[in-house]
Amino acid sequence: EAEEQEQEQEQEQEQEQEQEQEQAEQEQKEEQEQEDEKEQEKEQEKEQEKDKENKKQKKNMMMMKQEQEQEQEQEQEQEQGQEHKKEKEHKKEQGQGQGQEK
User: Fold this and answer.
1) pLDDT in tens, 40-59
2) What distance in Å separates the CA atoms of residue 36 and residue 39, rounded to the nearest whole number?
3) Positive/negative CA dihedral, 5, 11, 15, 17
4) Rg over CA atoms, the chain
5) Any alpha helices (H) in the chain, and if so which ranges?
């Protein structure tokens, strides 16, 4: 009788130890998962920051591009204006030249 009880107690203790170990492992696992989640959140925040920066840069690039394009357009307009002037001058000169030739 006594021996059987002892064996049973031993088995119970072993089971308890196993359960405790499993619990400890489970807790570790959960902690690790929480850590992982925190890491992921950090990564996501970094990504969001990057996205924000990229968007800002893109916006700046777009603005710069637009400004450049506007400047180019203005320059072209100025050049065209000068071209027209030159053409008028040229025509005048031609007219004078013909007049002198006669």
Assistant:
1) 999 999 999 999 999 999 99
2) 5
3) positive
4) 43
5) 2-101
